[in-house]
Predict the 3D structure of the following.
Amino acid sequence: MTESPAARTTVPARSFESLAVHAGQAFDPTTGAVIPPVHFSTTYAQAGIGGLHNGYEYGRSGNPTRTALERQLAAIEGGLHAFSFSSGLAAEDALLRAVLQPGDEVLLGSDVYGGTYRLLARVLGPWGVGVRVVDMSDLDAVAASLAERPARILWVETPSNPLLKITDIVGLARLGHEAGALVVVDNTFASPALQQPLSLGADVVVHSATKYLGGHSDVVGGALVVDDDALAEKVKFLQFAVGAVSGPLDAFLTTRGIKTLAVRMQRHSENAGAVAEFLSRHERVAHVYYPGLPDHPGHEIAARQMSGFGGIVSLALADGPAARRFAESTRMFQLAESLGGVESLVNYPDEMTHASVRGTELAVPVEVVRLSVGIEAIDDLLADLDGALALL
Ligand SMILES: *Cc1c(COP(=O)(O)O)cnc(C)c1O
């Protein structure tokens, strides 16, 4: 079991930036190597039967490189226990199985990651788990839904994907706890550099580490961070018993990414803010979704609970064909799924990331395009967007 982040930090780090660099990253005591070695061994020699070295027995149950990442994750989210998985969805699956029983229902935000909805509706649904959907940014709607029928879990993404809706985490946590529900925040979009949901009252933080934590589009991973000891024990058991753990090289790449998270998120936010302003002044753009814009309905809440507005900007064009054409016309913004890497990406949700929720309550409007704004020079990014808009 992971100890408290303070106990794991070998330097007196307090601030986010320092924890991201140092937590779990003590130098190797044998050689003094400043970067802890990557451990590939699948098994560990025992000093007599049952004589384990620091608890390590077999690669699925524990690996020092994974431990280093888990300590770093707990520290940067300000949580007591962190668990690293082979993907964001593997992390979600472990959490849902740890908490839910047949007959339970999950109340899901209306534009959460399509794969989360698919996991609940199509994998856990046949095992007797129910899912219903509500606009989580509307706390009255959440309260009304909870008054109608209980939910075991409230699951929110804020900012949401791809419409960048903002939910007041403090308010949602209060509502959820009054109703006896576990409050889960998927913090993939903001990352802990900009928002720390546990400190705002959430019970669990979920990550697709594939996105900003890894940050370079070269590793798939996921994570859970929780404070509650009993829940952590259940998650740890499932991580071991089901086995969707991150491999050593994946864990190392994620750790390396996290060390630069603070500076990357600052630059992503600056660039995205400039892109959002540019787009909102452009005549061909019908609407810009970005919580940093003063007219965004969640702007004030975002300004309160985030320390930057993040790197994702969505825009609406005149219609579906215009949106498709735009997404296929940018050059520096590469047309690809995913987000959160140093390079800029463009995505047409209706046919790409959100194709699995087409025709459901979670469907994304056909005129919407999502941008993952990278850390390139802002002038190059604006010139690229301007060029693609000129072709419409
Ligand atoms: C990508 C993503 C996931 C799923 O993570 P994988 O690493 O692809 O399994 C979950 N939530 C959000 C918000 C995501 O963007």
